[in-house]
Amino acid sequence: MDGQYEYLAQWYDRLGGHDEKRWGGYLCELLKRGGANPGDKVVDAACGTGEMSIALCRAGYDVMGVDISLPMLTRAADKTAQLGLPIHYVNADMTNLKLHRNVRAVTCACDGVNYVLEEDALLSFFRNARGGLREGGLLLFDVSSAYKLQNMDGQFYGEDDEELAYLWYNRMDSDVLTMELTFFVQEKSGLFRRECETHRQRAWREDELRALLDRAGFACRVYGAFGFEPPRVDEERLQFVAVAK
Predict the structure, then answer these.
(1) Mean pLDDT across the stretch 77-94?
(2) Domain count of the chain?
């Protein structure tokens, strides 16, 4: 994950294409159904530019955001300060994060788990999350499904406007999707500056994630994202609701 959001951070909110209000509302509903109440401590792992952390804080939760990308956290902190919200942000790798046992829930929205490529590292994240939760505590995370990532193989995207142009090419190797992003940003001189980033996401299967959660001490349910029904075969995003045993 490290180094993959150095330049993209300044454009992430614009290019993400997410409905943050809908997503935040869904997370809050999952927390409510799992018995987490306003005032409870929630750790938002891979919090990015803070959109979910802000939504959770506005719903009354005591939120700490964690992300490995300092540029993403800087944007999160700036937005949070403008809104006057009491969110604490920590620059750390979520797979190595040690939590005190006073957390009611850990959330990880928008592909944070996909960016963990190795089984040992993901198991470490799950175990560290479990270590900060009491029995009945929640770990909520979503993944872009294997079906979605496999169908992105060979796909090419692009956009061009007055501020920014970008090219985005995807290729699948085994179970890892590599995304090559090239940005062209116009400077005051009228010339364009070129910046490149490479992102990699693993196409985790539902059974792989269930097995790792069980090893880490969780029972889990899986939904098609933004709903409360089991995922379809062609579901593009899976929502995991893991409960500490």
Answers:
(1) 96
(2) 2
